[in-house]
Design goal:
heterodimer, A: 81 residues, mainly alpha, 2 strands, 28% helix, B: 85 residues, alpha+beta, four-stranded antiparallel beta sheet, two-stranded antiparallel sheet, 2 helices, 6 strands, globular
Amino acid sequence: EAEWIRLKREKRPGKLSPGLREAMGLHEGQLPPWCMKMSKLGMPPSYPTLKVAGLNWGIEHLRDDVYGKLPKDKKKSRTTG
Amino acid sequence: MDNSTTNLYVGNIDPRVTREQLYELFVQACPVVSLRYPRDKVLQTPQGYAFVGVPSVQDADYAVQLLHNCVTLHGRPLKIRRARP
């Protein structure tokens, strides 16, 4: 379905839209609340290479709607099951 | 043969939260393979809960540990647990 394809393309780990930030009460320059937990739990099992600003990536990358980044991996992501 | 899509139950969702925002939030923890966010048939308002399908039990457990009682949307902390099969 078209909406789903668009979501999969546009919504990526490490990026939060202004609308979601506002709903969370997350101000500019603030890390999302789960980032500290990531330092305890480790990176998500499906995103072992995820970079998060302030954890394993320079804090200077924290800006606008970006707090992290999933480097493009070679193998297909397994979202289609 | 990892064909074990696992469902998460998400509760205490403020009605202003959109389906798109739920997808966006959960994709931070793991890939999202399905999302059910029921609305009231008459009023068309969301009913305050959702089911998020994720690729594996490991993803589900991680998402619960990461996001349960951690994310507050419009002042309401999201409650997340594995859905009963």
